């Protein structure tokens, strides 16, 4: 049975392996040490909330949320920046459980909404989000490389 829970510093080693695989999936260089340090810093500084999916005492997936704010609504919101399931554990329902954990966290923190972005060609993820109540918007986002 898959459970979800907040990640702790005790999860860093196994979580870093998945986080590194996630980054490689998005065409980034393999950097396990960098992945570990990045996650360690986020947890220590309480700059993100990470939920993990655990099956048979093994972390098989995670989602990472970053706090943002809505000036118009005067409320907190969350950016669901990362969601990844170990390829060997896909189709077991872990992604849906992680989305539910993120939703509950948003509700529990009195947030206005959750926001996520995915690649245009990531159709399986888009289908999962729609199935779980997420609505695709027509907003136009711009980025500025620094």
UniProtKB/TrEMBL annotation:
Xref: InterPro entries: Acyl_CoA_acyltransferase, Bact_Acetyltransf, GNAT_dom
Keyword flag Transcription: no
Short name of any one Pfam family annotated for the protein: Acetyltransf_1
Gene Ontology CC terms, in alphabetical order: ribosome
Top-level taxonomic group: Bacteria
GO molecular function: acyltransferase activity, transferring groups other than amino-acyl groups
N-acetyltransferase domain segment(s): 2-146
Record keywords: Acyltransferase, Ribonucleoprotein, Ribosomal protein, Transferase
UniProt protein name: Ribosomal protein S18 acetylase RimI
